[in-house]
């Protein structure tokens, strides 16, 4: 056995090195503390207020930092990393405009319950409140969109604050936590003593449910004739997909998964009915509306799922399982509230629940609807249809890729036509609907899983919002396969203007966009273009065979709409089914 080289050290050796008590700067404390929290990579962009922090990175080989080309790219990449890995994502930006450029990404993570630790610099403590150069009250600005915020005024508090931030971000209902570090605090020195205990008064997320409520649910299942399960992102975030699979198989209850819940349950299972809501399946929407027992597991009754609230699930007894008690009863009155971590709830619930024996006719009805009302579109041999493109991606990858999307029509087509069988394989902005999210989030997902295929599906509008991150794919050889569904228009806005605003098309023409192949090549990324099925198959095969990042532009039918569709003010069973 050869001797271990100095560069190859065990995790234990590194931790011993990082834990070594010594007098160091706040910046060095930050880097060491992040490593002790298990952080594998940080996405960021330097500036004046964080220069001490970036100076501490100089020569620090144990610390992995990815320089993005915009702060929004950094936080979306950290978000994608967190969603794909289940770990806490981390990003760093400077004060003022650097910090405010993170706001959209913070709100994106907050709406979708994604654990992030967001580190910002600020002006020196002596200048706070004086309107100093590049000063912004980022803790005040982000208060409504963070789970918690810290303004660190004493370097001695840094180890405790960082440890608490990771704990808060990753427990209970997960979410972003912001740490604002003034420049003089990052420069100050103190004896580094890592914090090992967490003592947070008033913060004790409830993870174990009330046993009496579980018994009520078991009895309700026994009596139900038309039960339905609505499963959301909480199942994935808690690692409860195996428990959910057991629950469905044991009870025999049909299940629909929300946009953020895709991958929580195998899509090929006979009891899975597809996605519910505005662009959901006929089976899911009619199943919810006709159910007599609706079991919500880790979803928040978003308006895109419920449609018209006073007409939602009118015949159902409502059960809501959620880690956040504030969500229960917020939108939909709840008959059986169950507060707790979804994984823990299902582990306790599964031994108690019976098979839904009275629901045989209901299961047959669900199967009949699935057979009669699948997703449909009118295909073409002359024009490339976006639905066909997604089906091709699914067929060639056998549904095994990690797929990220931007926001718009392509997002809905990807949710409808790509079949997910694993959790954390579907990454999209659900609650906030953030254009520009798709591509940088794929970079983060690829960093989390360097050996998996990551596909970033984007519209021609959203792709232009963070296209500058093509640079870091080229420089770092991050092998994301970037798909641009180019219909030369803001597609979802055009669809609404067509169907709801009587064809009054206002400011949606994107025909002046760049040639995406040339744009990719300008950054050093291979670019391919397809306008027909034959070209699409050939270009995608070449992309799959090419090591490293590739951008493939699919020029598709401009006037294609996403169907089914439930318009605002309608109940979810009042569906526009489309030309097909």
Automatic annotation (TrEMBL):
Residues 406-554 form the Thiamine pyrophosphate enzyme TPP-binding domain. Residues 25-139 form the Thiamine pyrophosphate enzyme N-terminal TPP-binding domain. Its cofactor is Mg(2+); thiamine diphosphate. It is an enzyme of class 2 (transferase). Binds 1 Mg(2+) ion per subunit. Binds 1 thiamine pyrophosphate per subunit. Residues 214-349 form the Thiamine pyrophosphate enzyme central domain. One of its GO terms (molecular function) is acetolactate synthase activity. It catalyses: 2 pyruvate + H(+) = (2S)-2-acetolactate + CO2. Pathway: Amino-acid biosynthesis; L-isoleucine biosynthesis; L-isoleucine from 2-oxobutanoate: step 1/4; Amino-acid biosynthesis; L-valine biosynthesis; L-valine from pyruvate: step 1/4. Its EC number is 2.2.1.6. It comes from the Bacteria. Keywords: Amino-acid biosynthesis, Branched-chain amino acid biosynthesis, FAD, Flavoprotein, Magnesium, Metal-binding, Thiamine pyrophosphate, Transferase. One of its GO terms (cellular component) is acetolactate synthase complex. GO terms for biological process: isoleucine biosynthetic process; L-valine biosynthetic process. Belongs to the TPP enzyme family. This is Acetolactate synthase. It comes from Paenibacillus lautus.
């Amino acid at each position: 056995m050869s001797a271990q080289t100095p560069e190859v050290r065990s995790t234990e050796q590194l931790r011993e090195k990082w834990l070594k008590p010594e007098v160091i700067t706040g910046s060095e404390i930050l880097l060491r503390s992040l490593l002790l929290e298990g952080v594998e990579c940080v996405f960021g962009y330097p500036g004046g207020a964080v220069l001490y922090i970036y100076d501490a990175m100089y020569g620090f080989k144990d610390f992995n930092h990815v320089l993005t080309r915009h702060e929004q790219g950094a936080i979306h990449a950290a978000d994608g990393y967190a969603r794909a890995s289940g770990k806490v994502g981390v990003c760093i930006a400077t004060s003022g405009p650097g910090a405010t450029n993170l706001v959209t990404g913070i709100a994106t993570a907050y709406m979708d319950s994604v654990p992030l630790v967001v580190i910002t610099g600020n002006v020196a403590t002596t200048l706070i409140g004086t309107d100093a150069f590049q000063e912004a009250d980022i803790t005040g600005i982000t208060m409504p969109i963070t789970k918690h915020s810290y303004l660190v005024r004493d370097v001695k508090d840094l180890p405790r604050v960082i440890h608490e931030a990771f704990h808060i971000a990753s427990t209970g209902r997960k979410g972003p936590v912001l740490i604002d570090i003034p420049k003089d605090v990052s420069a100050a020195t103190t004896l580094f003593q890592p914090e090992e205990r967490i003592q947070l008064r008033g913060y004790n997320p409830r993870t174990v449910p009330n046993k009496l409520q579980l018994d009520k649910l078991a009895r309700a299942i026994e009596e139900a004739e038309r039960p339905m399960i609505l499963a959301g992102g909480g199942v994935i975030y808690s690692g409860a997909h195996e428990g959910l699979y057991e629950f469905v198989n044991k009870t025999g209850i049909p299940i629909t998964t929300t946009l953020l819940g895709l991958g929580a349950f195998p899509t090929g299972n006979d009891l899975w009915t597809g996605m519910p809501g505005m662009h959901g399946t006929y089976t899911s929407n009619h199943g919810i509306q006709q159910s007599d027992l609706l079991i919500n597991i880790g979803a928040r009754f978003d308006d895109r799922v419920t449609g018209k609230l006073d007409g939602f699930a009118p015949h159902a007894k409502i059960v809501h399982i959620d880690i956040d008690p504030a969500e229960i009863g917020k939108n939909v009155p709840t008959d059986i509230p169950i507060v707790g971590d979804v994984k823990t709830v299902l582990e306790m619930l599964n031994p108690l629940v019976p098979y839904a024996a009275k629901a045989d006719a209901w299961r047959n009805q669900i199967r009949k609807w699935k057979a009669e009302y699948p997703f449909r579109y009118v295909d073409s041999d002359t024009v490339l249809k976006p639905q066909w493109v997604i089906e091709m991606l699914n067929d060639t990858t056998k549904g095994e890729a990690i797929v990220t999307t931007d926001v718009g029509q392509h997002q809905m087509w990807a949710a409808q036509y790509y079949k997910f069988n694993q959790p954390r394989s579907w990454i999209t902005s659900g609650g906030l609907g953030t254009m520009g999210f798709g591509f940088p989030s794929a970079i983060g997902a690829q960093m989390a899983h360097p050996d998996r295929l990551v596909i970033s599906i984007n519209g021609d509008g959203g792709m232009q919002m963070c296209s500058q991150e093509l640079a870091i794919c080229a420089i770092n050889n991050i092998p994301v396969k970037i798909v641009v569904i180019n219909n030369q228009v803001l597609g979802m806005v055009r669809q609404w203007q067509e169907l709801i605003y009587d064809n009054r098309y206002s400011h949606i023409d994107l025909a002046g966009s760049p040639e995406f192949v040339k744009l990719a090549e300008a950054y050093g990324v291979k670019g391919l273009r397809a306008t027909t099925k034959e070209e699409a198959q050939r270009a995608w095969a070449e992309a799959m065979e090419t090591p490293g990042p590739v951008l493939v532009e699919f020029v598709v039918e401009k006037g294609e709409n996403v169907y089914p569709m439930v318009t605002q003010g309608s109940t979810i069973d009042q569906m526009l089914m489309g030309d097909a």
